[in-house]
């Protein structure tokens, strides 16, 4: 997707926002919308929205940062645009930043949430992890565990992993990793909260495949099967945070990089012990 960050304000007041899930690519409880032009769908979502205060979160910024991070690491993922926009929700017009993504299905594919697919296809006593390994998706899972540790993703529920099937061609695959808004410092809305946030704390997460601990999920990766990733470097900070000054606070930008870098260094140490 070109033009990852569109700073010039766009008029998106025509979009109809709802909490109804139009696509697994926008799963969750945040407001979503979509548009279609020439048979091509684009999906939009907002950061955390309050009916009184409007947009109060920065999850859409997280999506762009994680998009850039996964590109640097060489991990397949859904790409996002961060767009400066004017929107209209509940008869109120607001200026905000939203994120946009394109449909990741290929022609002829349909989609189903992994948890739904598992319920219909697993054998007796087979866990979601065992089921995915049997399906040949182990490498995908190990990458996902690493990503979710680095960004402390709190929201890897069973609909945030997507199964794509082409019945005519008899192919089946997992969709590229997507939906990383509820990660990093998503809970911090003030500089004081940012200052107090411990970037290495192993906070409880939602993980359909793994446990409630992102750190423990790393330990589930078998020895000798750690993903081969591009190395993250300190100078990558500039690329990760490019253009985000003024969109979120400097203290938040600094702490986000601190979190990613310290967790990456811990992951490298972890790899050396395996």
Give a verbal description of the structure:
The chain has 274 residues and is α+β, with helices and mostly antiparallel strands. The protein has a domain of 98 residues: 2-Layer Sandwich (Phosphorylase Kinase, domain 1), CATH 3.30.200. Helices cover 30% and strands 22% of the residues. Helix 4 crosses helix 8. The longest helix has 23 residues. It is globular, with a radius of gyration of 19 Å.
Q: Outline, from the CA principal axes?
A: globular
The CATH level-2 architecture of the domain at 5-102 is identified as 2-Layer Sandwich
Report the count of strand segments: 12
Structural class: alpha+beta
Treating each run of at least 4 consecutive H or I residues as one helix, how many helices?
8
Strand/helix succession: EEEEEHEEEHHHEEEHEHHH
CATH class categorisation of the domain at 5-102: Alpha Beta
Proportion of residues in extended strands = 15-25%
Q: Approximately how much helix is present in the residues? A: 25-40%
How far apart are the termini?
Answer: 36 Å
Radius of gyration, CA atoms, in whole angstroms: 19 Å
Overall pLDDT = 94
């Amino acid at each position: 997707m070109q033009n990852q960050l569109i700073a010039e304000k766009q008029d998106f007041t025509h979009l109809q926002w709802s909490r109804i899930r139009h696509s697994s690519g926008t799963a969750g409880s945040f407001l979503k919308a979509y548009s279609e032009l020439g048979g091509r769908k684009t999906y939009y979502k907002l950061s955390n929205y309050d009916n009184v205060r409007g947009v109060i979160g920065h999850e859409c910024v997280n999506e762009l940062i994680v998009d850039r991070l996964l590109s640097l690491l060489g991990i397949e993922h859904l790409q996002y645009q961060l767009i400066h926009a004017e929107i209209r929700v509940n008869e109120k017009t607001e200026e905000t930043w939203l994120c946009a993504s394109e449909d990741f299905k290929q022609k002829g594919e349909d989609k189903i949430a992994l948890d739904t697919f598992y319920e219909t296809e697993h054998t007796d006593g087979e866990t979601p992890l065992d089921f995915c390994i049997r399906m040949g998706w182990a490498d995908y899972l190990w990458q996902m565990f690493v990503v979710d540790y680095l960004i402390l993703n709190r929201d890897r529920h069973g609909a945030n992993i997507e199964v794509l099937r082409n019945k005519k061609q008899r192919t089946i695959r997992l969709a590229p990793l997507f939906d990383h808004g509820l990660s990093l410092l998503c809970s911090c809305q003030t500089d004081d909260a940012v200052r107090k946030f411990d970037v290495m704390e192993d906070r409880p997460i939602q993980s359909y495949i793994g446990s409630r601990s992102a750190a423990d999920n790393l330990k589930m990766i078998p020895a000798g099967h750690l993903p081969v990733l591009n190395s993250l470097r300190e100078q990558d900070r500039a690329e990760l945070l490019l253009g985000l000054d003024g969109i979120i606070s400097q203290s938040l930008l600094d702490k986000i990089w601190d979190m990613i870098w310290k967790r990456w260094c811990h992951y490298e140490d972890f790899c050396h012990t395996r």
